[in-house]
Specification:
The chain is α/β, with parallel strands linked by helices. About 40% of the residues lie in helices and about 10% in strands. The protein contains eleven helices and seven strands.
């Protein structure tokens, strides 16, 4: 009987030790589970830095006005398409808000070199003259691939205007010979040449080529004096050179209606363009305030006839 009691005590002690050891293992496992990072059903969750994707360029590019109506939504989409902000996979949104000259990294097959800030300004000017019924057509002198004039035609179509024309004036063979004494040395004769056929194709691509889009092919000094333009409500020039800018002002500014807008690219970055504009303004006592659009373009509203 003595040996039976000894054996029973021994068995009880063994089971007690086994139970205690199991409890320790269970507590250790539970602590490990609680301290381990949780995983989603689909696999390990990546850190927030890895899953945080950059904001798409098209969402980061801010335009004005904030589109509310169907017309504004259409024009907003067109601005982002003409600059290629709509399809840019990544990059700095300022590449699409400022002109291409002032930025790096923009998609290069766009129909315009300017950014959405200048397109915002064109939208403001054109819609304003439509609203106030300022008489006259729209013109851009120096169209490159035609993006700005495409946008002008789109604004007229969006708001149902059936009376005004859009004029696109360009040599369609590149820049004329720059004046080595006045113009920037970065320009070369024939630079930035885009054919008339290519520009027309760009209008067609957007469904905007019709009889109210007029083309003036040739140097400004040859085409603008005899152009059958009676009145203008919006005049935009991207002429790059001193004499070309003077030709635009001499032949087109007198046709700009009071209440219309004169827009000039490159005023802030090319001294030759600035000189041509400032000289013309002084000679004709043009005192309207020059307003800045972006890093290189300016505009003013015409308040009085010459």
């Amino acid at each position: 009987m003595k040996w039976v009691r000894v054996i029973c005590v021994f068995v009880v002690c063994v089971f007690a030790l086994i139970g205690a050891f199991g409890l320790v293992l269970t507590d250790s496992f539970s602590s490990a589970v609680r301290s381990a990072p949780r995983q989603s059903p689909g696999g390990p969750r990546q850190s927030s830095d890895r899953t945080r994707r950059p904001t798409p360029v098209v969402l980061a590019v801010k335009t004005n006005p904030i589109p509310q109506t169907s017309e504004e939504l259409y024009l907003d989409l067109l601005k982002k398409t003409l600059t290629r902000a709509q399809v840019a996979p990544s990059g700095d949104p300022m590449c699409y808000m400022e002109p291409v000259h002032m930025t790096n990294g923009r998609v290069e097959d766009a129909e315009t070199m300017i950014g959405t800030k200048q397109l915002d300004n064109i939208q403001f000017c054109v819609t304003d003259v439509l609203r106030r019924k300022v008489p006259g057509d729209l013109i851009e002198a120096g169209v490159w691939r035609g993006g700005v004039t495409v946008f002008m035609a789109a604004i007229l179509k969006a708001y149902g205007d059936k009376d005004r024309c859009v004029w696109a004036a360009d040599s369609f063979e590149g820049l004329p010979n720059p004046d080595s004494q006045k113009d920037s040395p970065i320009f070369r004769q024939g630079e930035m040449a885009v054919s008339l056929e290519e520009v027309k194709e760009n209008f067609t691509r957007y469904g905007l080529l019709d009889s109210r889009v007029r083309f003036l092919k040739g140097l400004f000094c040859n085409t603008l004096p005899g152009a059958r333009i009676e009145k203008l409500s919006v005049l935009r020039a991207d002429a790059d050179l001193y004499e070309s800018t003077r030709d635009v002002l001499k032949n087109l500014y007198p046709k700009l209606s009071v209440g219309g807008y004169a827009i000039f690219d490159d005023y802030s970055i090319h001294p030759a363009v600035r000189s041509a504009i400032d000289e013309y303004r002084r000679a004709h006592n043009i005192t309207e305030k020059i307003e800045r659009i972006d890093s290189q373009a300016v505009y003013w509203q015409k308040q009085k006839s010459l």
